Amino acid sequence: MSATTPDLYGLLGYPLGHTLSPAMHQAALAWAGLPGTYMAMPVPPERLEGAMAGVRAWRLPGMNVTVPHKTAVIPFLDGLTPQARALGAVNTLFWDGDRLLGDNTDYAGFLESLPPALPSDVTVTVLGAGGAARAVVAAMRDRGARAIHLAARNPDQAARLRAELLTGTPGTTLSPDDPALGALFARSDLLINATPVGMDCRSLPPGAEQLALLPATAWVYDLIYNPAETPLLATAHARGLRCQNGLDMLLCQAAAAFERWTGRKPPLSLLREAVGAPERTPPCSAS
Ligand code: NAP
Fold it and tell me: What is the mean pLDDT of each run of 10 residues along the chain (287 residues)?
């Protein structure tokens, strides 16, 4: 790193509220023996251009990007990794020589977070069709899913996702209130919630009322990590289904971003300890 480069890392997003990224990356910097500070940097959309000029002017070595800038940041970059290009979204900025590039580590983070016991040729139903859903369906597609069904309230968004990422993969796209969703649930090995519904500790994602129709051997994966147990996961637990929340994906995508910046991948146990899990992500019943 040149002497003129501040050892400053950070997260660009708006609003940022409470983010776990500074805790994870600060711990990773200490683990790697690198100087530096990782900061939450709230930047409203109208100041993104100025913020990106700052990233270049100071040649900031490692930045993350989150909502609402994941797509808006692309015109300010010199190129994208194949993953970021395919998903049309960036969550990590890194330097390749003098080129500032964008990567998407949600894809690799999700893939790495999947339980090793989950077979590859599963039938999956995904709730939602936003940014996280795009990373999830691309990962499940590449892992060899037999079929990927989408239940999303925005039909245009869902149709775009299928056309851009799932042309060679069988599956149905429908609205979460379509009665036919029950039949898809009955044939699914894995249900993934890629909507924010459940963060309030009260609501089930639309469509999830049909959870009882999932086979007894199914897995339920909620990308939400706070609370640690959403109403969806609580209901699935009560049915005896195998459950996973979004914490491992969060840790895995952070580890992949840190590796992009430094060439060193921090252990997940270190990042897990840094975010204080499970203390900071109590189950809904504890809140
Ligand atoms: P996003 O791009 O805003 O997409 C959200 C999706 O959920 C959209 O399809 C949206 O539909 C749908 N949705 C929102 N509210 C809904 C409601 N009340 N009923 C039905 N559908 C609704 O957000 P995202 O980045 O994909 O994130 C989705 C979730 O994944 C968030 O909870 C986020 O925290 C989580 N996530 C976790 C990780 C991790 O590392 N664990 C990583 C990324 C995201 P509309 O377009 O119609 O609003």
Answer: 73 92 98 97 98 97 96 97 95 97 97 96 97 96 98 95 96 96 97 96 95 97 95 97 96 98 97 77 46
> For residue 132, how far is its CA from the centre of ligand 1 (angstroms)?
7
Q: Say if ligand 1 is within 6 A of residue 126 CB.
A: no
Beta carbon of 283 within 6 Å of any ligand 1 atom: no
* Cα 203 to ligand 1 centre (Å): 14
Q: Is the C-beta atom of 68 inside 6 A of ligand 1? A: no
Give CA separation, 247 vs 29, 44, 154, 261, 265, in Å: 20, 26, 26, 22, 17
- 3-class secondary structure, 51: helix
Residue 70: active-site member: yes
DSSP state letter for 28? H
- Contacts of 285 by beta carbon, 8 Å cutoff, 6+ apart: 229, 234
- What is the per-residue pLDDT across 203-257, written as a single tens digit (0 to 9) for each? 999 999 999 999 999 999 999 999 999 999 999 999 999 999 999 999 999 999 9
Element (H, E) at 126: strand 123-127
- Residue 130 and residue 115: Cα distance in Å, rounded? 23
Pocket perturbation via mutation, ligand 1, pick of 153, 193, 275 by most ligand atoms within 8 A of CB = 153
Cis bond upstream, residue 155 (ω within 30): no
Pure H helices in 59-187: 82-87, 105-113, 131-143, 155-165, 181-186
223 lines ligand 1 (CB under 6 A): yes
